[in-house]
Amino acid sequence: MTLDVKKLSAVALLLFGIAIVYWQVFQRLIEAWIVDGNYSHGWLIIPLAGYFAWERRARLAATPVRSSWFGLVVLAGSILVLLAGLYGSELFLTRVALVGTVAGIVLYLYGWAHLRILAFPIAFLLLMIPLPAIVFNKIAFPLQLFASRVGESAISAANIPVLREGNVLILANTQLEVAEACSGIRSLVSLVTLGLVYGYFSDQRFWVRAVIVASTVPIAILANGARVAGTGIAAHYFGPKAAEGFFHEFSGWALFVVAFVMMLVVQKLILRIAPAPTQHVPVQPIAAV
């Protein structure tokens, strides 16, 4: 019991230390979740990671504690990354350092076995961190062009005259710009996160979870292309207002629901092709009277 109190006291002190050292990082991270719609799902990441860790409590309790001094190396490296991010004004580094610090603490206090058990919850925390601008732009711009091409093809297939110049679709009565916010990266990030969580709860097999997560990428991209096409067709028949305001926002939510349903269909198809193995429960023999 004394050992448990010492461990809990050490964890409490370390958490207090993290709060002091990383308070600026937490503040800017929360601001990003509020301001940047691409990462509004960040509010759910920490509670979900906490649940994943709590779910492993039996395995953690049954695993012997073997503290590793290498955890201090990980902690020191994370602090150096934090300092580099602070002095270089690189928010991504400071936020990654936070996750590294959590991993270092687990390794130092409890050892490698506990870190392996908590690897998924800790790695899951990375989803709350916004991508660096240079990486974000490398992803967003090709998605803008792809959505524009899909929209142009679909609008043309509907016998509606359309001209595409880069990420701008020119119709007879208006023109639509597939801006960064309409690139689909918001739904892509959200759907990948949702696919990861859904795959985790729906199937125990790693490869099934990986396929579900991987399927969310083409599904999100195609759904956004369909949204751009639908917006262009609606603007042609109902005027430019169909591409603005409530209708524009509602189409985004509607297409996200459709994308989620498509992900569910993929999971059902996997179960049909490769059913989950059923656990054999041995029958207890009846004692003779």
Strand line-up across the major sheet: 1-2-3
Instruction: Please tally the helical runs, counting DSSP H or I stretches of 4 or more residues.
Output: 12
Gross geometry: elongated
* Average predicted confidence as pLDDT: 83
Biggest sheet details: 3 strands, antiparallel
Count of discrete domains: 2
How far apart the termini lie comes to 46 Å
Binned strand content: under 5%
Strand tally is: 3
| Low-pLDDT stretches | 280-284
Rg, rounded, reads 24 Å
Task: Provide the helix percentage.
Answer: over 70%
| SSE order, one letter for each helix or strand | HHHHHHHHHEEEHHH
Derived structural class: mainly alpha
Would you give an account of this structure?
With 289 residues, the chain is mainly alpha-helical. The protein has 2 domains: 2-130, no CATH class; 134-273, no CATH class. Helix content is 72%, strand content 3%. It has helices at residues 2-21, 23-35, 42-55, 57-62, 70-87, 91-110, 112-117, 119-124, 133-157, 185-202, 206-238, 245-273; strands spanning 163-165, 168-170, 175-177. A 3-stranded antiparallel beta sheet has the order 1-2-3, covered by helices on one side. A hairpin with a 2-residue loop joins strand 1 and strand 2. Helix 2 (23-35) packs across helix 6 (91-110) and helix 5 runs antiparallel to helix 6 (91-110). Residues 280-284 have low confidence and may be disordered.
